[in-house]
Amino acid sequence: MRHSISIDFDKLRAAMVIEQLIPRNISESKVLEAFRKVPRHEFVPQELRQNAYNDYPLPIGENQTISQPYMVALMTECLKLKGGEKVLEIGTGSGYQAAILGEIAGEVYSVERFKDLADKASKVLSSLGYKNIHIKVGDGTLGWSEFAPYDGIVVTAGAPDIPESLVKQLKDGGSLVIPVDRGGFGQALTLVERIGRTTRASDICACTFVPLVGKEGWPE
Ligand code: SAH
After folding, report:
1. pLDDT by 10s per residue, the chain, length 220
2. Which residue among 74, 96, 110, 112 has the greatest number of ligand 1 atoms within 8 angstroms of its CB, and so is best to mutate?
3. 87 vs 14, 32, 42, 78, 206, CA distance in Å?
């Protein structure tokens, strides 16, 4: 007799929040609520679904990855969203981070350089009923000026430097979170806050992201 394996994704998702996020000081209730709700397993390839709620990134095709749940949570928390904001994401990838942002913010704009990843993400997001997430294919190092300025910007790929175009598209008082190269010392997740015409940058933690490739990123 063959046994079919059924996985209780709801249980795994609840455990992810309790074991991976809360002990590492993710504390914003809106962020935790979004993680309890968004079905991460829908954003990973079929054969990796059983690992979707584990404490690490997973491959999603095109040599790209869906980030570790904790890293998505930390970046989201850095934006200090209260609800209703306009947010820009660079690097749609699977669409998971966009979905988390879409649960909290008003409108989410997300740019991806690979068309097939953007198409796949759009499909999953619309099948889950998100109407406030807008995706386009292009070079996200230049931002998405049409809908600027943004209350928050999340870059989910590692940059050589902070792209000037993104800082320009940030509202006064807004936050940009981005992994930035530290020479031989890996990448630092960096929080850039815009205050009038000036900015203040602070390091959050060490991190490892796939490269941000584009005009104000790494060369092809
Ligand atoms: N936020 C994603 C993680 C994606 S990994 C998720 O939740 O799954 C980073 C993504 O950034 C990759 O899909 C990569 O193709 C994309 N990327 C890299 N450089 C880019 C650029 N200049 N513009 C837009 N997307 C870029």
Report:
1. 555 578 999 999 999 999 999 999 999 999 999 999 999 999 999 999 999 999 999 999 999 999 999 999 999 999 999 999 999 999 999 999 999 999 999 999 999 999 999 999 999 999 999 999 999 999 999 999 999 999 999 999 999 999 999 999 999 999 999 999 999 899 999 999 999 989 999 999 999 999 999 999 999 9
2. 112
3. 26, 18, 22, 12, 24
What is the CATH code for 9-207? Answer: 3.40.50.150
Q: Establish whether 110 is a catalytic residue.
A: no
The amino acid present at 200, given as its one-letter code, is R
Ligand 1 midpoint to CA 1 (Å)? 44
Q: Give the DSSP H or E segment for 118.
A: helix 115-127
